[in-house]
Amino acid sequence: MLNEELRFLKQTIYDFSTKEIAPKALNIEENGIDSDIIFRMVEMGFMGAVAPTEYDGSALDNAGYAVLLEEIAKNSPSLAFYLMIQNSFVIMPILKYGSEEQKRIVIHEIAKGEASGTLIYSDILDTVDDQILTIKDGKISGTKNYVMNSSGKYFILNTNEDGKNRLLLIKSGGSKGKEHAKLGFRGISFSPVSFDTTAGLSDYIGTGDGKKLLSEIIDNSAIAMSAIALGMSESVISKAIEYSKVRYAFGYPLADFQPLAFAMSETYGELNIMRNELYRIATSPLDLQDALTIKHNLIELAKKSSKLAIQIHGGYGYLEDFGIEKFYRDSMFLSVLSGNRVAELTAISNMIFGAEVAKI
Amino acid sequence: MLNEELRFLKQTIYDFSTKEIAPKALNIEENGIDSDIIFRMVEMGFMGAVAPTEYDGSALDNAGYAVLLEEIAKNSPSLAFYLMIQNSFVIMPILKYGSEEQKRIVIHEIAKGEASGTLIYSDILDTVDDQILTIKDGKISGTKNYVMNSSGKYFILNTNEDGKNRLLLIKSGGSKGKEHAKLGFRGISFSPVSFDTTAGLSDYIGTGDGKKLLSEIIDNSAIAMSAIALGMSESVISKAIEYSKVRYAFGYPLADFQPLAFAMSETYGELNIMRNELYRIATSPLDLQDALTIKHNLIELAKKSSKLAIQIHGGYGYLEDFGIEKFYRDSMFLSVLSGNRVAELTAISNMIFGAEVAKI
Amino acid sequence: MDFSISPELEEFRNKVRSFALREFTEELKHKHDEEESYPEEIRKKVFKDGLVDVSKPWEMLITMEEFCRVDPGLGLSSIVSLFGNEILMFHGSDYQREKYLEKVWKGDLISGFAVTEPNAGSDVAGISSYMKNNGDGTWLLNGGKMFITNGTIADIFLTLVRSSPVDVAKKHHGLSMVIVEKNMKGFSANKIKGKMGVRATNTGELSFDNVVIPESNIVGEIGKGFYYVMEFFNISRIYVAAQAVGIAQGALDYILNYVAVNKKTGNDMADKELTSFLIAEVTTRVEAARLLTYRAASLLFKFTPDPVATSIAKYYAAETATYATEKAMELLGIDGVTTDLERLYRDAKITEIWEGTSEIEKLTIARMLIKNKIKEVEQHA
Amino acid sequence: MDFSISPELEEFRNKVRSFALREFTEELKHKHDEEESYPEEIRKKVFKDGLVDVSKPWEMLITMEEFCRVDPGLGLSSIVSLFGNEILMFHGSDYQREKYLEKVWKGDLISGFAVTEPNAGSDVAGISSYMKNNGDGTWLLNGGKMFITNGTIADIFLTLVRSSPVDVAKKHHGLSMVIVEKNMKGFSANKIKGKMGVRATNTGELSFDNVVIPESNIVGEIGKGFYYVMEFFNISRIYVAAQAVGIAQGALDYILNYVAVNKKTGNDMADKELTSFLIAEVTTRVEAARLLTYRAASLLFKFTPDPVATSIAKYYAAETATYATEKAMELLGIDGVTTDLERLYRDAKITEIWEGTSEIEKLTIARMLIKNKIKEVEQHA
Question: What is the CATH number of the domain that holds B199?
């Protein structure tokens, strides 16, 4: 399905991911993404993967970017999600909505590994445990409970000023709270951040309603999230398949037992179908309905694959050292972070039904 | 996904199916496929869809043939399956394994609507209620319990002669037993056929083991069966969607209820993914693993869609007149007729695992 | 806790099972399915053999289960002539009890329960059949009913009608339950043909064209009809759950028989783990469905019906019936399509639809649980 | 049939639930999860408060359920010091009962149950730890065990070992159960770190390097070890089922609380049918799992254990625990990842693995059902 250029890119990143990321994957989970890895990410051009070359980016298109995330996610979903935050959540919105100054400074710094950014988008997730930030007299205040990469330098966030939601790009200024217990993506910081600051940098980003812009940013990350889910599924089911060939029970390799073999090959088959669809979407003009649909399907598949893989690995699947259980946690966390599930299903339904439905 | 030529073909067959088949669909279920329909099938070139023009066929390629079956199945799964029997089960094997005489006579007659044929392949289904036909002194004897289109003129069947399985093409000569109660595809005759005859026509077809040839024929029909399942799913889920917009409960159209809307749009989304994959496969060099995989997935989808559609239609979904329940029966029947499920899953598993697995 | 069934009830179970295996012959099963005809002869035998005794609810439940296990069409038909009798039992006047109920109990009258309308299924309060007070002790009924079991064979119908103009905010007020007799002027019924399954049962569409309903045919209090129906669902849904358990068990019977037969003929299907998994999965769900059903029944039969338990049982058992017949077809494959399993597969699906679709059951369950939880949270607040 | 729980048992349930809610503080739950440390202080309290009494099996079961409902890590840890005690109860000598069992019952000794090995999990008879008869009344044990609960804190281990050379055709012969003490020479244990969930429980890898086992430490008959383990699974799997029911109920608690809180804050989530369906579906499965578990337990506690009922309960309840925590996470979304639900989600999955994976449970169920059916078919033939 991939053209030659993409196949070459895939091979390159596969090799990189296998040789350089895989051995460090466990360490990323335990100690975070260290400066060595960031250095290599910069060298490889992954930090600014989607940024134009004029801002020191690699100018990957949708499909190339998907290949990158898929291959990195196979070994470290944390690192893949981190790259996605930089590219889909920070660089892309700045490219689309930002000022020239924002582009020159922020994208450059991220691409060079000098800084990282994040997007605070809990405002569009249905949550009871979070506040909306407010602006009064140029000062942002309030606490956001759910901030991924909360130790980053740049924040894109929504604030409410006189009843109006506006998106801002600010330079830190928040105070990071205690790290949350982390369900998944343990290599990335995740904590509350409290703000009591005047907006930094060139503040406003985009002109529309801030919550709507957040939704757009998340919508636009659908292919990227799908690629991460795909890489995770592939990796975990391949590991299960390999393990089932060498692990014996009752005198036979597990792969000899039909229900196990069929469960794995059915999942693998679905995976192939979804991969083909994902790259078809990534290489076509953007179709939001298709992109959201594949995202939901691939995230479900990642959950299903990882559950199956734990089961195949038995007790070993339950231990961190074996690198299986993290997919079970990460896939659920990805599901939670992937956007507002109900709002997205409603959007898909509206498109399919050609009418506003699913209100009740 | 379809190129312009295929899109044009699709539109043509869609129009035909909607205008000419839909109004007769219920009648097909009750009284079978009458000569008027066969006449139109011949005129449209559908009876010999895959046959070369020299044998009066339409020379459709894989994708064109899939489009045909998909569009016909939307309104009459019985008719679509009947066309598939003629093309995938009779014409294709004769083209591949048959003599020139067999091609000239049998394919010509089928394409012209002068005769129809069938394939008896229960030998490769795991069954306890069936016998293997035997040949002794040039005479075939035995009873085959499960024969679709048992009223046809030509039979391709497997016989055992001195312990060797050989495929034969014979001209009727069987005596048709009492029609079975029909789970699905009620427009097609389905009954036992008893043989006590000397082989007709030019008998042997192919040189290999008869059961292996049967498996090959079924394998080669995977795209066609997938297309039928796809058409069925599309049709039934579209009907459910339309019905849910006009049927009210508690003051709201059913489409307003999230669990119903989401169930339909999720199914619809899967459908789109599968359709894209099916046509990708149909327009690529044959990949058996992909073809069997999509077949299994699409047949499951057809079962799931029809179950959901009945539920959306409530009591009306349970009545024959509304044209919903038949999809529930037909999809299960298609599943049963689609081949040896366990053998196929094992074959897929072997390909994926790169080893012989799933033995236990 | 005691999950065992009393020896008496087990003995009764054997008795009804033997009856079904003996009387529901291959010929009759096929015939009534094919012809969509009602097996009145079997119904008579069931009553004659004393298998139906409304004073023994556990036996009624077991009869339902075991009959449906063998053949839902014949099984249901033989006992559904009692349909709706509990409403008369609880709310009928002496006159109604004597004139109708006692005969229904003996099997001499066939009863129907008429709620659903073409435009109101799950949404019971959405019905529009309307009865106007003539002011002379009679009412004038107009409208129609849809999907009514025993529609063209019942002698009487317990019919839900609107008896005062609809108040949009309180749609479930102003509904009443009345007895419509088949011989009343202006009443007519058409048989609904072409059901996918349970084809031995009789289903009709009813029409009321200026039917005069005497005051004496109003059941219980005027305006309380909706509540009677909801109360009745607490009963009828448990019986549907039992139907579904029977069907699911029937499918499991096919699976186990098939595997045993295969084993005997040397086919190694029985030794394949895929087969084992399927058997284990189906068995587990059948057992769960049965326990949920019996639990709901035990609450009802102690006069402490629990709508949550009832809806859970109905929803889960119905889903299990569909699931089990699907899995059985999947295993038996081509050998399944020409057996009784084929019919069971068609029959099963109705349990997810009638007496409240699975969707309605789920709403019932959730609404009560949410209500209780909010109350609990508020008390602690 | 009586599905009601006695008032005494309900009262006991309230008592253990109160204990768990009071003692399993937020701080302790977090701490022991984060540090992977064993909550010895809570275990002591549980014994002190008399919440563990092996003579009252129903109470044990309820304790397991209610403890796991609040926190599986702390809950399990507080009672798992009894692990394997039933084997000694049924088969131990007077000497073993006095020296070990009575102390385990009082909570003064911690017991472990050591069967699984690196290369033999579900396949119990595949173990290779080997004990050689010294001919002087002692045996010499070599080998190792994996994933052993209480691995580095237990005082004694009920250990399955091979005591005569393996007969390939009869692998489950020649296995014996022995008591290994932690202080025995040649015994060592390493803590296994990094479990996804139930991190407060202690898990270890054991190593036997020429450990001398006195004859007096052989439990029951030599060579019968495999059967003791299978017999024990009839008990332990029911307790795992109860764990799973507790976890699933815990997830449902989160769901209902969240919906109630949302309702109070004006979020209309509670009124969405999607939420209702989710609540109904989870509730139904939790109820089914609980009934299956109690049924298996009631058979066991009447000394008529039914391996089919046990395996059904274990498999279904474990699946339900995983399912319920998944659904709860799905509903709570981002609000779920920073709560105790996050831990519950990690904890749940173990119930599908330990004490027999779901796959093994399914084989157990199917094998017995097929065997019975074949017998039945043969009798009729």
Answer: 2.40.110.10
Is D298's CB within 8 Å of C367's CB? no
Whether residue C93 lies inside any domain: the answer is: no
Neighboring chain D residues of B258 at a CB cutoff of 8 Å: 272-274
Which structural domain, as residue segments, surrounds residue B65? 4-116
Do A144 and A189 share a structural domain? Answer: yes
Are C285 and C350 contained in the same domain?
A: yes
The answer on pLDDT for A297 being more than 90 is yes
Chain C residues closer than 8 Å to D276 by CB: 362-363, 365-367, 370
Chain C residue numbers touching B318 (CB-CB < 8 A): 195-197, 349-350, 353
Integer Cα distance of A92 and A97 in angstroms:
8
The Cα D143–Cα D117 span in angstroms is 9
Q: What is the mean pLDDT of each run of 10 residues along chain C (381 residues)?
A: 91 97 96 97 95 94 98 97 95 97 96 94 91 96 97 98 91 95 98 97 98 97 96 95 98 95 79 92 98 97 94 98 98 92 97 93 92 84 62
Nearest CA in chain A to D261: A128
Q: Spot the catalytic one: D11, D355, D361, D378.
A: D355
Q: Considering the domain boundaries, does residue C117 fall inside one? A: yes
Q: Encoding tokens for residue C350? A: 């109705």
Tens of pLDDT, residue by residue over A1-58, are 678 999 999 999 999 999 999 999 999 999 999 999 999 999 999 999 999 999 999 9
Residue A262 lies in a domain: yes
Task: Write out residues 291-330 of C within 8 Å (CB-CB) of D.
Answer: 291-292, 294-295, 298-299, 308-309, 311-312, 315-316
> Length of chain C in residues, anyone?
381
**Do C249 and C371 belong together in one domain?**
yes
pLDDT for C381 equals 62
- Inform me whether the C-beta atom of residue D283 falls under 8 Å from chain C C-beta atoms: yes
The set of residues, in sequence order, having a beta carbon less than 8 Å from that of C313 and lying 6+ positions away, is: C237, C238, C241, C289, C292, C293, C295, C296, C297
Residues in C closer than 8 angstroms to D244, CB to CB, are none
The last residue of a domain, from among A98, A116, A134: A116
Q: Is A3 helix (H, G, I), strand (E, B) or coil?
A: coil
Query: Are residues A155 and A235 located together in one domain of the fold?
Result: no
Which residues of C are annotated as catalytic? 355
Domain count, chain C: 3
Last residue of a domain, one of A57, A90, A116: A116
| A215 within domain boundaries | no
The total of structural domains in chain B comes to 3
d(CA A68, CA C53) in angstroms, rounded, equals 71
Does residue B39 sit in the same domain as residue B103?
yes
Alpha helices in D80-219 (DSSP H): 85-91, 94-96, 102-106
Question: Nearest residue of C to residue A256 by CA position?
Answer: C273
- Domain identity same for A81 and A38: yes
pLDDT of residue B126: 84
Looking at the structure, do residues D124 and D31 belong to the same domain, yes or no? no
Residues of A in contact with D166 (CB under 8 A): none
What gap in Å lies between CA A264 and CA A256, rounded to an integer? 12
Flag whether D187 is in a domain: yes
Determine, yes or no, domain membership for D68.
yes
Same domain? D289 vs D195? no
- Which residue is it, tokens 């330990």? D354
Kindly state whether C380 is in contact with chain D, defined as any CB-CB distance less than 8 angstroms.
no
Domain that holds residue D213: 109-223
The pTM (predicted TM-score) of the whole model is 0.96
d(CA B307, CA A311): 30
In this structure, are C136 and C49 located in the same domain? no
> How far D325 CA lies from chain C's nearest CA (Å)?
18
Give the H/E segment covering residue C364: helix C358-380
**Quick check: B317 contacting C, CB < 8 Å?**
yes
Binding partners of C (≥3 Cβ pairs within 8 A):
A, B, D
Structure tokens at C73: 């069409």
Residue D289: both structure tokens together: 């799992």
CB contact under 8 A, A325 and D196: yes
Comparing alpha-carbon positions, the chain C residue that sits nearest to A254 is: C273
The CATH number covering residue C267 comes to: 1.20.140.10
Collect all residues with Cβ–Cβ distance below 8 Å to A194 and sequence separation of at least 6.
Answer: A142, A143, A144, A174, A175, A177
